[in-house]
Amino acid sequence: MLEKATGKTRxxxxxxxxxxxxxxxxxxxxxxxxxxxxxxxxxxxxxAAKQTVAVTMRTPGADFELAAGFLYGEGIISSxxxxxxxxxxxxxxxxxxxxxxxVNVELRGDRDxxxxxxxxxxxxxxxxxxxxxxxxxxxxxxxxPVVSPGPEVSAETIxxxxxxxxxxxxxxxxxxxxxxxxxxxxxGDLLALREDVGRHNATDKLIGWALMQGRLPLSENIVxxxxxxxxxxxxxxLTAGVPLVCAISAPSSxxxxxxxxxxxxLVGFLRNERFNVYSAPExxxx
Length: 286
Fold this sequence. Notes:
Layout: E1 14-23, E2 26-35, E3 38-46, E4 49-58, H1 63-73, E5 83-88, E6 102-107, E7 124-125, E8 129-130, H2 136-141, E9 153-154, H3 155-167, H4 170-175, E10 179-185, E11 190-196, H5 199-212, E12 221-225, H6 231-239, E13 244-247, H7 253-262, E14 265-271, E15 274-279, E16 284-285
Parallel strand pairs: 3-6, 9-16, 12-13, 13-14
Antiparallel strand pairs: 1-2, 3-4, 5-6, 7-8, 10-11, 10-12, 14-15
């Protein structure tokens, strides 16, 4: 499942530009870096069939983890063993510049995969996640279980997470325009972090990393996201078995519904040694 080496030029996570800075009544020109945003098409290969299952606007980097995490979060695959190979597009009919924006995921066997859950995912944006109405019933029909009890985490440990996340955001330091999803141990140790212009993409990359590393379920861990928590974030964490999800900003109403229904401890407005607990408070010790 390694990336194939080709003669194509891959875009980086940063794009250089020049900006005019207005400060103290004067204008000057200086170089700057932007977070790259480009579309990525995920193609599923099963037997002789090939199907586009999603197109998402993302920051290039960890593309294979993004594809794997997305398919796992949507219930299309249930383990890394179902993935035979992940590669970039080698179709000669595709413009060479775009081939790194197409990821092929080849699955093992010739069995049929239920792709109906992906109908709402054909186009997604980096800002809002998947376009289309999602429902709790979909998660129930997929048989998502209530998460395991998981660890009890001290308030002091939770207080420490935002600073650790922020210190590890190398791309954010360079561009100022990226979200992050981080995996922590119950003791607050940072285990992994992924960045992207979209929170949901960063979460897919993080869970895809855990999937490929054989770390799922994440039943003893904490996931923290920059910004707000949404239905999409909670859905992905639920599928990965995460018992405690933290966010810098507010949760959506549907995110709280998912957390309460499936027993996830959801923490929001985590900043300045203060936070709100919206569900399952028994995992937080004070």
